[in-house]
Here is the input.
Amino acid sequence: MVTTSPQPGPMIELRGLYRFFGKTRAVDGVSFEVHPGQVFGYIGPNGAGKTTSMRILATLDVPSYGDAFVDGFSVIDDPDRVRRRLGFMPDYYGTYPNCNVLEYLDFFARAYGLKGSERRRALSYVIDFTKLAELKDKPVKGLSKGMKQRLCLGRTLIHDPGVLILDEPAAGLDPRARIELREMIRELRDNRKTVLVSSHILTELAEMCDTVGIIERGQLLAVGSIEQILDHHRRQLAEQQTHRIVSCQVLGDPVSLGNWLTARDDVDQIKVDKQLIHFHHAGDLEAAADLLKEMIQADFRLIAYGSRTESLEDVFLTVTKDRIQ
Amino acid sequence: MSTLETAIAVEDVSVGEQDRGSRFAAIEQTIGRLGEYLNPILVKEARQALKSKQFSITFALLLTLVWVWSLLAGVWIDPANFADAPRQSLVIFMGYFVLLAFPLILVVPYSAFRSLAGEIEDGTYELLSITTLSPRQIIGGKMGSALLQMMLYLSAVSPCLAFTYLLPGVDIVTIGLILLYVTVASALLSILSLLLATIASQRHWQILLQVFLIVGLCFALWCVCGFGAVMIQGRAFESAAREFGFWFGVGWILANAASLFLILFMCAKAMITFDSENRSTGIRMALLLPPLITFGGLTFANLHFDYEPESIIAAIIPIAIYWGVAGSMITAESPRLSARMRRQLPQSLLGRACSAWFNPGPASGCMFVVLNFLAVPLVVTALGYLNLSNQSNPFAATFELGKQIELAWVLWMYLVIFLGVNRLLITRLHHVAAVNVFLGFLTTLLLFLAGIAAPVLVQFFVTGAGSMAYTQLHVSNLPYTCVELFVDSRNEAALLQVKWMLAAAAAAVLLLNARGIWLSLLYDRAATPTRVVADDASHSGGREPREPEKLNPWDEQDDRA
Here is the structure.
């Protein structure tokens, strides 16, 4: 298997990366680093440039300017060395007809140059890790989406790469398959794999990633650990005042409650969705409790009331505000 | 115990159990060990093909048709009619040949095309390309799979072909040559189909290519069957096979086919090679083979067999077309030499001067083609003068020295002009658009057609449709100038002026390209990154990094790099 860099340094590094398609700037000067053992979440709406930068890292595309490095090797000048160290799982399955699970994995093991007992051990490990043992003689075309995704993860891991790039791995999976995938990614992190994972299911990324980067229109808008990004955002808000997000459900006319809230100075960004009302409330938990009391005293028939601080999703929406294409 | 360790333990136990198995298990293990050395693509394709309906149906159909034809032949042959027996035998043999040609010329190349095009469509090609498989292994594996299918189809028809040998009028040489002919044709068409599959990545272009390919393969099947029929009906092989010249001819044709196969293989490989890798040197080396084989073979034939000397002259025009087409594409290569490629460059100026023409790039490529085709007029001139001084040489009798030498030099000058202008044009185009080698071919073709059309149109509007005589105006008209060289009533004065104009234009074009050509010699070897050196050292068992390896004969001449 491939030896990883003995000297400390980022396992993944994007250095001033640009990719143009005609006049479109798919990737526009993106730079970040992912260190060994980190799980980096790449967040962005569709068309933000996540897949393009991942494809460049996987040596499937070349940048217009700049360079990217995997374990210190340039994706432009040393793609062969990068490929030995990297496993890429694209956002499609890429399976063959007339082929069963074991044959599929065996083919990719051979394609990565594994021979004899080394290949058999890799196959056993991957089948065990992805829990495909019972399915190994099953035709690939008969697998469910979740099973196919596990198979593709197995293919990505077959040559024991130090770096994994997973493009939207949870897309289209049912909740159970998502949980299984999340567990597998956590196990990979525990095995000191460096993982770059993109997703638009932000709650999941928040649970499995150490670091995230928010990309939109090809530009990296924020990068850092989830705590760093949330703290930074909260500090920005705290400079103005304490801020909580309130959601409540009301029986009767929600518009009158909306109007009542609009008249208040400590409430903004009110959104009415049928019987649900979401708004930002300037104040702490005490103030939120006082607001509930005032609403009941004003004869609004509330059946649900919740107050929370900002999540990664809220930060994402705020950071990319007015930028979504 | 970690998961991986558990997996190893389980594997060792299962292997141990297998070892205690029967003799068959030992054979299976041996085959398995041999299988480790097979191309992974070949293994995968073989597994898939054995399960695919397309192969099963084609194979079963071929087998059925061959047996039906055998039964019909058995019924048709009249043992009493000895006089007609050879004709009947050849018809039966022809039937087997056509049945074999159908899968070999139509099905196998089309399957090869679909095999690669399908991977590109389904995205599996991308997954393949990021494995450690090299482009050579990918194309080689697909080609190997096509050859395997060919062998299977041949094995289905072989018993029946052996049966025809028992019939009067069918000799073993004809059977062998026909099988060789159809197999070589199938291999060439398969590699061409693979090359076509690499050209278009978008679905609509692939569909268009597929239509062209099917039409082309049908035409090829018709040609192969037609030519095969001529070969079978000729029945001249058995007696001809006793002569050395016959086998020399067969070898010469096979060598040409092999060199063409190599070129197509290198082109297909280059099409799927990563951008920063060297895609050109292999193709350029392969390009040297066909002219060498053609010219060398014909020269040998002329000297050894008193062959027609005109054949050498007849080879000049195809070789000019060959270098023209190759050059048109080479001059559209990217002018940038990647850092990866520059790590392999010779260190000394002399080394660079000798090997630079094989490096990727339009300027070096233009010079590579021009210098290679220069060999043709030089050889023709040398042969001509050699024959003048030796009247006993068979060349002297029929060699029209003046015209042949003129033709070779005129074609060389046209090549210099067209390729040089195309390179200058493409250099400008590189600044405004993405250019590929096919655009290079297109621009050269347009230049060539414009060279014909412009003087014809000018003459038409100036003098009217009545007069299309050759004048100096036709200097850009390559075909007309070549024809004018050989006609008896040629316009000597105009032709002489055209030759001088061509010489001046060729010199001017070479001068305009001189800077680019000189710059292509000045590329320095790039230093190998320390990370790469350290990685190489780690793979060499932790030994200290060695001195840079000698990559070419000139590396030791200059220690400064």
